[in-house]
Write a structure and sequence with these properties.
By secondary structure, the protein is mainly α. The chain has one domain. It contains seven helices and no strands. The two termini are about 15 Å apart.
Length: about 160
């Protein structure tokens, strides 16, 4: 069995209740975005020297997402494409909000992060099982991939 199949199966064990699944479809992308946004808010520091190459995307979020995508590549190259698209969308929304929102991006993202985690823990209470990342921290990255693999399956794409 491929590593991605093992990870998705193990993650799925604690995500079988329909209500918990629904919460995850909303909250996992929200948490992913909020983390991207929070990291986006970190002052660029050394990233400024890359500014001439990357423009406004020379920030820590871009760097961290690159590392995350390398991780996804090690477990499923095809799934990496979907995660790249979602990562790029999250980064673009963070960039957009940082420009147009009267509320600081970090306030928006921290609020989303807190509310989404409250719902996540409630979903696991309903499920009756602890979140998978209590067993292994890599499951924090498997959650978004677990959702993406359902999208791939719906459209008949290999993952």
């Amino acid at each position: 069995m491929r590593k991605i199949d093992q990870l998705l199966a193990e993650y799925g064990v604690s995500h079988t209740h329909p209500f918990n699944k629904l919460i995850h479809w909303i909250c996992v992308p929200a948490i992913f975005f909020s983390i991207v946004g929070l990291i986006y808010c970190i002052p660029p520091g050394p990233m400024q020297s890359l500014g001439f190459v990357l423009g406004s995307f020379a920030n820590w979020a871009t760097f961290v997402l690159l590392l995350v995508l390398i991780y996804y590549w090690t477990i499923s190259p095809p799934l990496t494409l979907g995660m790249f698209l979602f990562s790029a969308l999250s980064l673009a929304i963070a960039n957009f909000l940082s420009i147009v929102s009267p509320i600081p991006l970090w306030v928006i993202c921290l609020s989303i992060f807190i509310v989404a985690w409250i719902f996540q823990f409630y979903g696991h209470k309903v499920e009756g099982k602890k979140p998978s990342f209590f067993k292994d921290v890599q499951f924090l990255l498997i959650g978004p991939a677990w959702l993406m693999h359902f999208i791939y399956k719906k459209f008949g794409f290999a993952y």
